[in-house]
Known about the structure:
single chain; alpha/beta; Rossmann fold
Amino acid sequence: MVMEGVKCSAGTDLLEARPAGTYFIHDVTNAIRQKKPNLLLMDTPNISSFMSMDAESFERLSSYVTREYGIKLPLAKKSMLESRLNKKVKTLGLSSYKEFLDFIFSDEGKKGELFHVIDLITTNKTDFFREAAHFHFLTQEYLPSYQQEFNRNNFKVWSAGCSTGEEPYTLVMSLEEYKKRHPEVSYSLLASDVSLRVIQTAYQGIYDIERIEPVPLELKRNYFLRSKKNPNVVRVKPQFRNKLQFKRINFMDQHFGLMKADYDFIFCRNVLIYFDKPTQERVIVKFCSHLKPGGLLFLGHSESIMGMNVPLKQVRPTVYRYAG
Ligand SMILES: C[S@@+](CC[C@H](N)C(=O)[O-])C[C@H]1O[C@@H](n2cnc3c(N)ncnc32)[C@H](O)[C@@H]1O
């Protein structure tokens, strides 16, 4: 049995190096607290050993993920999958990927673990003011003329695939700054993702201080509070966190549970890149049905609608206006 505080060899992310040179096994510690017998029976070599995914399991998992979530998983992604799932398989006390998949697709697994597998498979890389030209274009160029053209002062914005919240909070900061110059304006902001784990992080709005490096100094002061307990942690001020509504939305679902023709601006950046072209087109058509005429769809810098039959006109690189 593995004991908390036992000295053992490093080489796994389950182990944390201590200054004194000892190692603590967090998962085992948790298992002891939670009385998980499967995990307690594992010994150290089992925990640190790498578990390879057999070809059949890879095929079974990748076709499930593509069908349910649209995400392509070519064979080249196998080692990425293994590195993300290894710990989960072992924490469940299972000794192969076949056993793992049998479990997550069982009735019991479908009620619990299967739902969380997507948390491990999605790529959630994001940043504050990522591809900053989009926010500049929206607030410096497009919004003033959009207000005039359509006589609209109340905007609905959707950060679709919001990850851990950096994108929707960047939108909050940009729109709040715009409001200072245009007090007649109001807005509401929806942030959605398929992964509940990232939505939870976004909802909390707590970030390590280095995450807000791309935020201009004045905005840092206006929109964030520094933790009293830990000076390396900041939190979005509550009045700005409250600007966001959160919803779990899977773009593969037939309906998103949102009103049609209701959004002025949809940001769906660096999400569709993980889908194949026909899936991208189907999702973009659905986004169009939620845009108002003259509304904009923002895609990521390496995404485009080229070759697609969609009612959008490019107005800037990766920015598209809905023809209506
Ligand atoms: C790389 S992040 C992009 C975050 C942000 N939009 C940005 O550009 O910085 C991609 C996000 O898309 C989400 N995603 C992947 N598949 C999805 C799906 N089928 N439906 C909705 N969101 C999905 C992931 O969970 C992840 O948080």
